[in-house]
Amino acid sequence: MAARGTSLAPSSETPNGQAQLNRLKHTPSKKQKTPLFQLSDRGCWSTWPAFASGQTVLQNPKPCCMAKERKASNKQALLTIPKPRYLEQLESYLRKELQSLDLTKKNSQELKLQPYREIFEFFIDNFKTYKPLLSAIKNEYEVTLAHQKERIRALEPLKATISTVSEQYTQQILALQESERDEVKALKQEKQHLLKVIENMKEEKSSLEIQVEHLKKSLAEEYLRYLNEHHARKLLLADMNETHNKQLDLPLHQVQDVKSEDVVKLTLALKIARQDLTKAQVELNRMIADYGDVVPRRDFESLEKKYSVLLQEMKIRQKDFDQLHKEYDMLLEIHRETAEERDKAFVELQEVQRSCTPRPSWAKCSEVIPGGADRWSSLAEGKTSDQLVDVLLEEIGTGVLRERDVFLGCGKGDNIPVYLRCEGEVKNKKLSKKDVVTILKDVWREKSALEQQMGKRSSLPEFFLCYLQKKHGEAAAMEWSYTIYENMRVYQSNPVMSTFYNVLTGKVSEEQYHGQNQLISHLLKELAACDSSSTGSLSSEQFSTALREAFPLKRNESIQDLVDASRHRLDSAEDLINYRALFDEDEEGNAEPFVVMLRNQYVSEKQEYVRELGSKLGDLIEVNVDDLKSAFHAIDPDIDEQTLDIYIGLAFQVGKEQTDQDVLPVETALERLMAGDVRRVGPSPGEESKTECEEGE
After folding, report:
1. What is the pLDDT of residue 251?
2. Long-range contact list for 419-427, CB < 8 A, 24+ apart?
3. pLDDT tens digits for 397-435?
4. Residue 483 to residue 481: CA distance in whole angstroms
5. For residues 435 and 496, is the Cβ–Cβ distance under 8 A?
6. What is the per-residue pLDDT across 53-85, written as a single tens digit (0 to 9) for each?
7. Residue of 632, 641, 634 lying closest to 679 (CA atoms)
8. Nearest to 523 by CA among 579, 446, 561
9. Running DSSP on this structure, what letter comes out for residue 66?
10. 682 with 609: CB under 8 angstroms?
11. For residue 99, is it within any domain?
12. What is the DSSP letter of 419?
């Protein structure tokens, strides 16, 4: 219908089409090239070969022709009609454009689609009647193509991720197969060896059984033969005795008659008797020689039974010996480690003895310390010389802080912390220790609330400055910051100030602070769980049990130290410990001795853990990720992959995807681990061995 409508109105549409075609010739579009097209000879758009059906007329049709022949002649007539020039020009333009494209590029399909898109736009522009419909079709196809491209672009990262994950798991599978291949091969070889040993033992057993049967049979035959000989000998002796008695009892006349017998016959009989006696004596000697050492069956069975009992006892003794040998090797290794620790302690002792100085008279400090001897006695009670030096320095620093009215600004360089970037003089707020502790606790609370709301960890120096600016304004923030900073630097004996100062200056990570708080919170929950009556008190036995359940990896000595530290809260009358009071703090942030002991044990256990890691690394100067993972697995076999990745990231301070080829000095890695929250996940191999030995005993 579209072709017929176009051909019926040549006068109205032809001039417009011709004018439009001329414009396409001389004014090409900015986005695409426009080929030179012409109208057909009829002055309208040709619809070849559809219009040919109305123009082709068969000459002299025969009524008798078959239908197939008529159809063939119609088809041949249609093929003789030439293509319209417009169609030929479009096809020629398409071929030239496709030949000029470089189909080796990555986007060859999009390049190939562009000429077809241009041809379709020519159709839309020239066929005015169907332009809205064709434009709608083209737009729908373009929207669909754009949607498909967006989906493909969105799936590209997923494809890359799938490929990466597939490659990683393939490598892991290959690594597992490679690691198990030698073990499987060794097990197969051991199996073949054991099968050969079993086969040899079976053959030896069958051979021994045959020998035993043969010996039993021979023994029975010889025993029967010996018994017959024994009976025959007895009969012969009886006959000889009877003959001798008869000879003695014969009357004299009979003797005379015997003498009168044939002497030759008697001599021959005597000779034969002597020969028989000789044969019997030889046979008897042979029997004694052959069976003199033969054991009776009763004795043989008794000895065999004793042998079985002794063999079983020997196997038990051998098993005990192997166990003792293993324990001996273990004790030998423990002795070697103890000897190394003793040597190190001896070297340290010699170093201390060489570098130590005479103990100073600390009583002199009471003359210059405010408060006199009484205050100095309370400050120095139970402290070592090193701790007394810290107390003395803290008292001196406190006096200096009180006297100073201003602080000198550190400058505004990039190497200066953000909370100290100031020039000129900064006013000293002269805060008390209680005020500083209150502010620091409030900073921790505000920071924890913000992190819970945001879901991620923020930087303490930047938050500290923002907190002071929010509370006191930007003008006075630096005065508060310098005052608090100097107080923290002086009061290092205060746990709140020292912890905040170490985290703020980067000496330790913030995770260590949160790790200690989680440790204390976990212990408090365990103690509350054991307190079924919610009285706030537990017996010494219940308190010790709760400590072991909360800290299953602690040694018995550490548990006992914690119990001893809680004794000052013990009610001697009822043997009850007020465990809630153990976690109280005074107004200056000083904790109870129990919490101090718990934090000290946390630090010492971390130091021991990192020291074991350094010993496992040995003489290595630099360490990579694989070496560090192997060392962690060696000293802590129960460590999980997630915790291990956290420790590796803490040591290398980069993301997991960047650590595969990084190499780090061992000292740097150990220092970073010491500054972070690093704890043992499972018992050490040495502790497991000791536990097994105790259970065996």
Report:
1. 57
2. 419/461, 419/464, 419/465, 419/468, 419/481, 419/485, 419/504, 420/478, 420/481, 420/482, 420/485, 422/478, 422/482, 426/478, 426/479, 426/482, 427/479
3. 777 777 788 888 888 888 888 888 888 888 888 888 888
4. 6
5. no
6. 444 434 444 444 444 444 455 555 455 567 778
7. 632
8. 579
9. -
10. no
11. yes
12. G
Whole-angstrom CA distances from 462 to 218, 426, 429, 443, 634 are: 104, 19, 21, 12, 39
For residue 466, what pLDDT band results from cuts at 50, 70 and 90?
A: very high
479 vs 575: CA distance, rounded Å? 51
> Residues 121-137: what's their mean pLDDT?
86
| pLDDT at position 371 over 90 | no
Is the Cβ–Cβ distance between 233 and 284 less than 8 Å?
yes
Residue 92 lies in a domain: yes
Q: How many residues does the chain have?
A: 697
Range of the domain at 621: 610-696
Which of 112, 140, 168 is a domain's end point?
Answer: 140
Q: What are the pLDDT digits (tens) for 147-188?
A: 988 888 888 888 888 988 888 899 889 988 888 888 888 899
111-114 long-range contacts (CB < 8 A, ≥24 apart) are 114/32
In one-letter notation, the amino acid at residue 687 is E
Q: Which two tokens stand for residue 18?
A: 């011709």
Q: How far is CA 25 from CA 43, 93, 157, in A?
A: 17, 14, 46
CB of 45 closer than 8 Å to CB of 6? yes
**525 located within any domain:** no
List the beta bridge partners of residue 426. 407
Distance, in Å, from the CA atom of 78 to the CA atom of 68, rounded to the nearest integer, reads 15
According to DSSP, the residues that pair with 222 across neighbouring strands are none
Cβ contact 428:482 at 8 Å: yes
Could you report the per-residue pLDDT of 489-513, keeping only the tens digit for each? 888 888 888 888 888 888 888 888 8
Give every CB contact of residue 58 below 8 A, 6+ residues apart in sequence: 70, 73, 74, 77
Total structural domains in the chain? 3
Please answer whether residues 431 and 485 qualify as being in contact, where contact means their C-beta atoms are separated by less than 8 angstroms: no
Two tokens at 621? 């100067």
Instruction: Spell out the SS3 assignment of 204-222.
Output: HHHHHHHHHHHHHHHHHHH
Distance CA 204, CA 200 (A): 6
Taking the C-alpha atoms of residue 138 and residue 123, their distance in angstroms, rounded to an integer, is 11
Side-chain half-sphere exposure of 389, counting CA atoms within 13 A:
4
For residue range 84-109, list pLDDT tens digits in order: 787 788 888 888 888 888 777 767 77
H helix intervals, 48-130: 52-55, 67-79, 85-100, 108-126
Other beta carbons within 10 angstroms of residue 678's beta carbon come to: 25
What is the arithmetic mean of pLDDT over 184-213?
91
Token duo for residue 347: 């070297």
Decide which of 340, 356, 372 is a domain's last residue. 356
Report if residue 423 sits inside a domain: no
Indicate whether 317 pLDDT > 90. yes
